[in-house]
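Suppose you are handed a protein chain with no further information: no name, no annotation, nothing but its sequence. What can you learn? This example shows the usual starting point.
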Amino acid sequence: MKNMATSLCMLTLLAFSAPCLAHPLPDVAVRAHFEQNGEWTLQVEIDPRSFQPDPNVAPYLTNADLAVTPAEQQEKLKVMARDYIQRVVEVVLEPAVEVKPEFVWAFTAAENAPLKLPEDPVMLTGTWHSKLPAGTTGYSIKALPAGTLSVLYQNTALGRKVEREQIRFPGETSYVLDLKTFKPRTQAPPPITADSLQDSGAVPDGLAGVCEMCGTGSTGGYMLPTVIAVAGIVVVVTWLRGKRNA
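A reasonable first move is to predict its three-dimensional structure. Written in structure tokens, the prediction is:
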């Protein structure tokens, strides 16, 4: 009986710790590098988990996995990446110019770093080098409505990162980077802080109950089931002890 009660407790602990162990949702990263002479490089990064129905629970493709992945399957992943990026991101140059990047795909670690360790998560990185059309004054991207993941928008100009970055959700457009000053044409909104939320009355009552491990509030989806499960375990253990002592 004691072993049964212990097993029940362990199963409950595993069940409710699982959400905390899920991988974070991947972003689709779009990084542009601009040079003074009009040369530019567009680079996109896709986590292969993005191709799965539920990227949040899909396992990473690791460097060790890649080593035993047949060449045909690796090429298939590159084709999937090419088709995927066309569906979820649009590149916009001003004045309006149609842009159809022809990416060269490679397997890398995050941020185009080389793969080293067996456990390194593998990314599909597409790179395209080109020259800006004469008279181009602005650059931006659109996260297309067909996408389901957020798009990370980052720029580097003349060897220096543009400080402002953005996360765009499907249907949203990024700020326009002025290609003469290499600065955003619009100012960034003020940062959201706890004080600003309190001043606006937008702080939810459950914010103080945020779970430090899982990032869920006191009204989060896992709080009520956890309380019910723990109460159930207490009842079962009490019943088993009473039966054993009878």
